[in-house]
Design brief:
Blueprint: H1 8-27, H2 40-46, E1 50-60, H3 77-85, E2 92-105, E3 109-113, H4 114-117, E4 122-126, E5 132-141, E6 146-150, E7 173-178, E8 186-197, E9 207-210, E10 222-224, E11 230-237, E12 248-252, H5 253-266, E13 272-273, E14 276-280, H6 283-289, E15 297-302, H7 307-311, E16 318-322, E17 325-326, H8 332-339, E18 345-352, E19 355-362, E20 364-365, E21 387-389, E22 392-396, H9 399-405, E23 414-419, H10 424-427, E24 435-439, E25 442-443, H11 447-459, E26 464-471, E27 474-481
Antiparallel strand pairs: 1-2, 1-4, 2-3, 3-6, 4-5, 5-6, 7-8, 7-10, 8-9, 9-12, 10-11, 11-12, 13-20, 14-15, 15-16, 16-17, 16-18, 18-19, 21-22, 22-23, 23-24, 24-25, 24-26, 26-27
Pfam family, one: PDZ_2
Active site: 115, 145, 219
Binding site for substrate: 115, 145, 217-219
């Protein structure tokens, strides 16, 4: 068939119709954006596995104190007697709280938040069908706010499975089911607003942020993806009123799964231990270390005889990779170490004095009571010569200066006795009584050593020099600007 040429008006009509069709496809429910027409089927399937958790706890009220002593015949004697006699006795009393949880095993294993059941005398789990079962505590992990409960059900329970939270993306749809304000079986939907959030609640913060409504009582409940998999445990909200304002946080399943596995096996967590104290690599520190950009975790202390020390890691090293994974920033490392099996032989890539090296470390078991004391560094005895450098007056450590400034006997380095108020050192928090341990990652024993290290960094064209400072029992690196 022969086609006929189109008029200009017909061409315009075709373009308009095509544009309208594209707009309708983009705005239609579920089209192109991945939004479901309804969450009803998903909610119906998942709700039976989500539970309400009720706890009771006995607390002792504070004593209301002695009655005021009044002289006999005082006009207020009868008034105070009637008042105090009318007050209830303040003995032990019972308090209750509500939260959420979810079943992960048909035999009766329930995940919730530690703060939901903390210090509870009795824990009861309520199901959507009206069933109520007592629960016993398997174990808790306060650092991630996860707790694991055991039920004894008369029949296998409906349960849900963990998904891969690391595969979730900002903008993905999520569903929260829980017990807000005691209203069991409440469902709310939203999206993932952000990932890898640090809200300063613990050393392993890596929260999923969501705008799905999460309120008091949702704590411990699951955050589902559209496949019906648990990708987070709802834990915290930011709200000036106590109600949802669209900023809620969930512990990601990638972290929860490992904690739950250890609680089931041991009743507590067994985390890997590297034996270092670390700090953030700032742009100034990166320049002093010779790094192109501020990445990794800077080692400020190494525990004597710890895994890192035995593997050859030193103070001043920057840990760039751990077990094949990049360390984008300092807070990545503690989480990676905690997730790694105790006893595993791990390759660690470090940046040391301008180049990368790879060391092997056998992870130890984290001991919460470990003091993490830094290793001793042998340095020669300092001669009694005072000098100034970078706005600091420096003196060698002597028996008298240790006593005057309260410096520990085992501290070694150069004593700071004065700091110019307008200097970079003062701005970075260096104070009289601090001890300079290293300059440009070289141990110093005299004020001349400090000046020499600064001069060498200046000759190399550096704008700042890296200083290791001991303040009391703490060690930290600071980058001080080199002045002309």
């Amino acid at each position: 068939m022969k086609s006929l040429p189109l008029s200009p008006l017909e061409r315009v009509r075709i373009v308009v119709v095509a544009a309208l069709g594209a707009i309708m496809m983009l705005t239609a429910p579920g089209a192109a954006l991945g939004a479901p027409d309804s969450f009803a089927d998903l909610a119906e399937r998942l709700s039976p596995a989500v539970v309400n958790i009720a706890t009771t706890q006995t607390v002792t009220a504070p004593d209301r104190g002695p009655r005021p002593k009044l002289p006999p015949g005082s006009p207020f004697e009868d008034l105070f007697r009637d008042f105090f006699d009318g007050l209830p006795e303040r003995g032990p009393r019972t308090t209750s709280s509500l939260g959420s949880g979810f079943v992960i095993d048909p035999d009766g294993i329930v995940v919730t938040n530690n703060h939901v059941i903390e210090d509870a005398d009795e824990i009861v789990v309520n199901f959507s069908d009206g069933t109520t079962l007592p629960a016993t505590l398997i174990g808790t992990d306060p650092k991630t706010d996860i707790a694991l409960l055991k039920l004894t059900p008369p029949a296998p329970l409906v349960f849900v499975s963990f998904g891969d939270s690391s595969a979730s993306r900002v903008g993905d749809w999520v569903l929260a089911i829980g017990n807000p304000f005691g209203l069991g079986g409440s469902v709310s939907a939203g999206i993932i607003s952000a990932r890898n959030r640090d809200i300063n609640s613990g050393p392993y913060d890596d929260f999923i942020q969501t705008d799905a409504a999460i309120n008091r009582g949702n704590s411990g409940g699951p955050l589902f993806n559209m496949a019906g998999e648990v990708i987070g445990v709802n834990t915290a909200i930011i709200s000036p009123s106590g109600g949802s304002i669209g900023i809620g946080f969930s512990v990601p399943s990638a972290l929860v799964k490992n904690v739950v596995s250890q609680l089931r096996e041991f009743g507590h967590t067994k985390r890997g231990w590297l034996g270092v104290r670390i700090q953030q690599v700032t742009p100034e520190l990166a320049e002093g270390l010779g790094l192109d950009k501020p990445v990794g975790a800077l080692v400020s202390e190494v525990t004597a005889d710890g895994p890192a020390a035995e593997g050859g890691i030193e103070a001043g090293d920057v840990i760039m990779k751990f077990d094949g994974r990049d360390i984008a920033e300092m807070r990545d490392l503690p989480r990676m170490v905690a997730e790694t099996a105790v006893g595993k032989d791990v390759r660690v890539v470090i940046w040391r004095k301008g180049k990368t090296q790879t060391v092997k470390v056998v992870l130890g078991l984290l001991d919460e009571g470990d003091s993490g004391a830094p290793p001793e560094v042998d340095k020669p005895e300092a001669p009694a010569v005072a000098e100034t450098a970078l706005g600091m007056k420096l003196e060698p450590l002597t028996e008298k200066s240790r006593s005057d400034y309260g410096v520990a006997e085992d501290a070694k380095g150069v004593l700071v006795t004065e700091v110019d108020a307008g200097s970079t050192a003062a701005e970075k928090g260096v104070r009289p009584g601090d001890v300079i341990v290293e300059v440009a990652q070289e141990a110093v024993a005299t004020p001349a050593d400090v000046r020499g290290g600064v001069a060498k960094a200046k000759e190399e064209g550096r704008k700042s020099v890296l200083i290791l400072v001991q303040s009391g029992a703490d060690l930290r690196f600071v980058a001080l600007k080199i002045t002309n």
